[in-house]
Design a protein that fits this description.
Belongs to the BlaI transcriptional regulatory family. InterPro entries: BlaI_family, WH-like_DNA-bd_sf, WH_DNA-bd_sf. This is BlaI/MecI/CopY family transcriptional regulator. The radius of gyration is 21 Å and the shape is elongated. α1 (about 15-30) crosses α3 (about 50-60) and α2 crosses α3 (about 50-60). Helices cover about 50% and strands about 10% of the residues. By secondary structure, the chain is mainly alpha-helical. The chain folds into two domains: about 15-80, Winged helix-like DNA-binding domain superfamily/Winged helix DNA-binding domain (Arc Repressor Mutant, subunit A, Orthogonal Bundle), CATH 1.10.10.10; about 80-130. It has a two-stranded antiparallel sheet with strand order 1-2. β1 and β2 form a beta hairpin. It has helices at about 15-30, 35-40, 50-60, 80-95, 100-110, 115-130; strands spanning about 65-70, 75-80.
Amino acid sequence: MRGPRSEDPRPRRRGQGELEAQVLGALREAPGPVAAVWVRERLGGDLAYTTVMTILSRLHAKKAVTRERSGRSFLWRAASDEAGLAALRMHRVLDGQHDREAVLASFLTTLTPDDERLVRELLGDAANDPGNGPENGPENDPGA
């Protein structure tokens, strides 16, 4: 019979979302574009290089990181923070639904009063931004 789990010498397994957040955190602290090995070292080095590359590739597919070719490898940079990554995930879920209006309506009915107030404020700020909206298109520019 095995002993308690706390005696298990294997490191705790991290979930994909946790690894993505840690990789993004390391990239945000980087002095500029960095190699995957740099990211691996910042995460403690207990991850396989291939695991770090998989996470970076997934983040790239989600547009949360950018990469530029450097010789035979890539240099990576954060394009999004954790909030931006969560927004990308939400957008991807919404894009996969046939009835966007029903999904959004259902989501809004589950908000706490504080979150509802915040959404209203954000929508009001967006509506009041002079750079937003069709009224500021070129066809309505008096100087055009």
